[in-house]
Amino acid sequence: MPAFPAFSLRSMLLTAAAAIATMAAPAQAKEAKQAPKARNIILFLGDAGGVSTINAAGILAHDKPQSLFIQSMPHVALSDTSALDKWVTDSAAGMTAIVTGHKTNNAMVSMVPGPDGALTPVKSLLEYAEQRGLSTGVVTNKPIWDATPAANYAHVAARSNKGDIFAQMLKPRFGNGVDIILGKGRKDAVAAFNAAGTTPEKAFATAGYAFGEDPALIATSPRTAVLRDSDFAPTPAVEATIGQLARNPKGYFLMVEWDMHTDDPLGGMRHVIEMDDMIRRVSAMAGPDTLILFTADHSFGLRMTGGKRDTPLAQQYDPAKPGVISVEDSHTGEEVIVAASGPGSDQVHGFMPNTRLFDIMMSALGWKKDK
Ligand SMILES: [Zn+2]
C-alpha cells in the first residue's frame, strides 16, 4: 500500500478537480459563444404539401411507410399555418409568415395591415440577405410572380397584381435583387413588361441578367433569369443554382418552391417525390454550414383512406374512385411539418407558429431583426 495519508489524497483529488474545472470552464464558454452558425440557407417549400399528402405520396412511390428523405431529417416540428384574418391560409399569407415573421391577411404579399387598415411592407429573409451581400435565388415550378415566390422579393396588397410584382422583381429594395430567378410564367412576363412599354428581354438585360428559357443558362452566369411556360427537370436546375450561389464567400439564401397541390392527385404526389429527391441530392452537396429546411405553406384535403399492404398501392389506386386516396379540393387548416438539418436546425421542434421559421433562419445566420 502506498503511504498516502488520507488528507493528502483528498487534497490531490481536489487540486485535480480544480485543474479540470479551470480547463473545462473556458472551453465550455467558448463552445457556447461559437454555436455553429449557418452560412447558407435553403428553404424547400412544398406548396400545399401537408403531412397527409407527403404520407400518401411516399407510400405510393415506395410501398413503405416513412421512406422519404424528408422523413429521415433529424429535426421536425409542426407549424400552425393560420392567416391573420382566416383559419385557413392561402399561399400569400402563408409564405409571408414564413419569410418575414409576420402573419398577414390572405392575398397580401409581404405586407401587413396596421390598426387603421394602412398596409406596411415587411422585410423578407431574402431582403436581409441581399442587404448583407449574400447571393440569393428563387426557384419554382409555378409562375415566378405567384404568391409563394413573390413573398421573397415583392410587397403588394393583392397577389394578383402581376405588373407590380414583375416591376419590383427588377427594382429591389435591398442589394441588387434576386440573383438567380427560375420559374414559369414567361407569357405573363411578356404581357406585364409589354404593358409597361418594354419587353422582358430588355428589362432583364438592363438589370444585368442573362435572360432565357433554358435552365442550362444558370451555369453560365451568376445573375440569371430563366422564365418558361413548361416544366423543367428539378434536380439539375437546383444543382446549377446552388453551384452559382455558393461562389459567394458570404453565403446564400435559396428558396425552392415545388407545387404539391393535389387537385390533380397524381401530379401533386409526383411533385412530392421530385422535391424529396431534390432535397436528398442537395443535402449531400450543400456542406455542413448549410441550414436545410422543408415545410409547407398550408395543408390540403388529401387523405389516404384504404389500401392493402400485399399489393403495390399504385395498382390499387384509381384517382376516379374513392376508397384508397380521396381528395377534397381545398386548402386545409391543420399544422404542417417542418423538417430540418444543419446549423440551427435543433430549434425546429414541438408545435410552433409558422412565423417562428423566420426567427429560426435569422438566428441560424446570427442576424438580428431591424427594430
Ligand atoms: Zn400555397
UniProtKB/TrEMBL annotation:
Pfam families registered for this protein in UniProt: Alk_phosphatase
Cofactor(s) demanded: Zn(2+); Mg(2+)
InterPro entries reported for this sequence: Alkaline_phosphatase, Alkaline_phosphatase_core_sf
GO molecular function annotations of the record: alkaline phosphatase activity; metal ion binding
Record keywords, A-Z: Magnesium, Metal-binding, Phosphoprotein, Signal, Zinc
Sequence positions that bind Zn(2+): 47, 261, 297-298
Key word Phosphoprotein present: yes
Location of the active site: 91 (phosphoserine intermediate)
Binding site for Mg(2+): 47, 146, 148, 257
Superkingdom per UniProt: Bacteria
Cofactor binding remark: Binds 2 Zn(2+) ions.
Signal sequence annotation: 1-29
The UniProt record lists the keyword Phosphoprotein: yes
Family, similarity comment: Belongs to the alkaline phosphatase family.
This protein's name: Alkaline phosphatase
Organism: Sphingobium limneticum
Top-level taxonomy: Bacteria, Pseudomonadati, Pseudomonadota, Alphaproteobacteria, Sphingomonadales
